[in-house]
Amino acid sequence: MGKIVFITGASSGIGRSCASRFAESGYDLVISGRRIEKLQSIASELAVRFKVVVIPLQLDVSRQEEINRSLASLPEEFRIPDILINNAGLALGLEPFHKGNIEQWDQMIDTNVKGLVYLSRALAPAMVSRGSGHIINIGSIAGREVYPNGNIYCATKAAVDSITKAMRIDLLPYGIKVSQIAPGAAETEFSTVRFSGDEILAQAVYEGFEPLRPEDIAEAVYYVASQPPHVNINDLLIMPAAQAAAGIIHRK
Ligand code: NDP
Ligand code: 8X3
Fold first, then answer.
1. Phi and psi for 140 in degrees, rounded to 5?
2. The pTM is what?
3. Catalytic residue among 147, 153, 174, 206
4. What's the CA gap between 181 and 214, in Å, rounded?
5. Which residues contact 239 (CB under 8 A, 6 or more apart)?
6. Of 2, 144, 175, 227, whose CB is crowded by the most CB atoms within 10 A?
7. Residue ranges per domain, the chain?
8. Transmembrane stretches, by residue range (predicted)?
9. Which atom of ligand 2 is nearest to the CA of 247?
10. Structure ipTM
């Protein structure tokens, strides 16, 4: 049995690339998300390619009442991961505050903030009992700087920043590392989801510059996870070279 990584939002984008990167290095995985068929196919591919154990787990992180049941369905040894990557998240809409859609706001808060908290709260006690673990939260440049119409999405990522710091303080005595990786613009399903499937709007986000690839973030996550026991990388802001700040992108 190798070391175990539990990844949320592994059906696509950054989470999927993290799954691949850790599998390549021999980690066994729990890959979770809502779209179980995608997770099953990713799990089969990675298991064959890298000869590791990959468990696909249907888990909507925003549904607190389902989390414990879902975790209980895992083989016992997979319920205490060595590394938890809290990656599941989304932006919905890009509207000025006074036109914001409350249901979309709720979904972003429920997923990006409450979901991260629910799952971490469920898994942390076992890490505390064991006296080791590493929680890596995926934040965003949007958590550092607010941009026009980013309002509630930016607020959820600012919350991830605060929660990461709070977890690090509270879990410090128990040998648990807590880190945040905050990417700038990365080309994934993120903008397709934000614009409700409108591919023209989504593609326009990445026009005229080279965005981050999900593999770039996965490499950074792997680097953070691979430090020696006495080193923790608290925080890593990783941007496309063409992006100076939130919304400040040099397009050709
Ligand atoms: P994708 O849309 O490609 O991936 C998002 C993942 O989150 C999917 O696997 C999706 O799986 C999962 N997810 C969404 N809602 C839930 C939920 N309720 N429960 C469980 N899983 C859920 O986008 P990215 O890979 O870009 O996004 C990953 C993270 O990176 C997010 O937290 C995002 O905010 C952050 N980020 C993205 C940036 C970017 O520019 N792309 C930049 C900075 C941060 P499923 O639909 O199967 O549930
Ligand atoms: C995603 C990056 O700048 O689109 O968190 O909000 S941004």
1. -175, 155
2. 0.98
3. 153
4. 13
5. 141, 183, 184, 185, 212
6. 144
7. 4-244
8. none
9. 3
10. 0.99
